[in-house]
User: Fold these one by one.
Assistant:
Number 1:
Amino acid sequence: AQTVTQSQPEMSVQEAETVTLSCTYDTSESDYYLFWYKQPPSRQMILVIRQEAYKQQNATENRFSVNFQKAAKSFSLKISDSQLGDAAMYFCAYMDSSYKLIFGSGTRLLVRP
Amino acid sequence: GAGVSQSPSNKVTEKGKDVELRCDPISGHTALYWYRQSLGQGLEFLIYFQGNSAPDKSGLPSDRFSAERTGGSVSTLTIQRTQQEDSAVYLCASSAGTGGLGEKLFFGSGTQLSVL
């Protein structure tokens, strides 16, 4: 079965600095997508960035970028120039042809002013 | 509506009672998901509807849980004979359902269920 692991329950970053959140996954599928979702206190999950497994180029969305290492089954999220509004729970997620989005346990990101 | 709407926002019930949670997906979205998020945990898949296809119920934890989707739109998650371990946030999501693996899921704000 596919699994997603986030080994950092909590991370802290100084405002304007850079932080990297880790994620590993396990699958035998060749075609899949990986996602990072943000969950603020409002509970609503917000898509931050996504990566298709077939694309070698790492996805970027403004201050957010990923380091996708397919062979190592690693998918980390880098947040540059951290802002107070980035404070939230961050979830790594995986989807294959089953169309079920499988989530990791999450990392709480604290941003220090 | 503009987004995925869930009701109620909060629900407190007594152990043994039945509860119904409602999800209104984004208009035109054919795919609909239910997830459960226990305190401090990640999201646990419950069920997935896609158009007129048979739903994927593989995540439902017991036969006390059921869900239906009427007219391809609104969905109701029903929990019978609630137990204290059912206390969690229940999140609903929808997507356009065009078949692409990387489709963006749009989530509602969830229903916080507390079983006393």
Note: The interface with chain B takes residues 4, 6, 31-33, 42-47, 50, 52, 91, 95-106 of chain A (CB under 8 Å).
Number 2:
Amino acid sequence: ILNVEQSPQSLHVQEGDSTNFTCSFPSSNFYALHWYRWETAKSPEALFVMTLNGDEKKKGRISATLNTKEGYSYLYIKGSQPEDSATYLCAFSDRGSTLGRLYFGRGTQLTVWP
Amino acid sequence: DGGITQSPKYLFRKEGQNVTLSCEQNLNHDAMYWYRQDPGQGLRLIYYSQIVNDFQKGDIAEGYSVSREKKESFPLTVTSAQKNPTAFYLCASSIVRTGSNEQYFGPGTRLTVT
């Protein structure tokens, strides 16, 4: 089982604050890094899939970066809003595993207070 | 609308009974997955299938069984051999051309065994 670590485990911020969280993964045999957002009472939804070292992805106020050599990815949220409250999951796939198989971290639970 | 359906949303069973969780997708995806989530844990892979009539054990397959007789359906049976069956179960699917394809999730089934 490959280890994917996310930090912090939970985060409480005020509306308008910017925030970021970290995902660490094995740097060898890297294939892809996924970020998902999981809102309460909904299904997890994909935010980004990154495959190349140095990749940066952006969707609205949310962006992500990837460093495959050192095995980490950052997710940034600029000007957090209450609707950003969710659990953010990262997942890793490696070249040695069956295609499509992901290893998930435990998630970072974000709460944004109005 | 394309998507993944899981039924029922809540399921209650007595200890010692087998129970089958339904997962159906109309996305025409080849791969399907079953995950389990427990409080404080990440998503853990139970079983996955890349093609009809074929499936592989994930990290926590003991006490579970699956079948994949049709592309769109991947039911999970929680047997009486599963020591701690009470959990939240998520089904997912993806195209499996590469390991970078995002997974699409169903709404989940919360199973309570007493």
Note: Chain A has a mean pLDDT of 93.
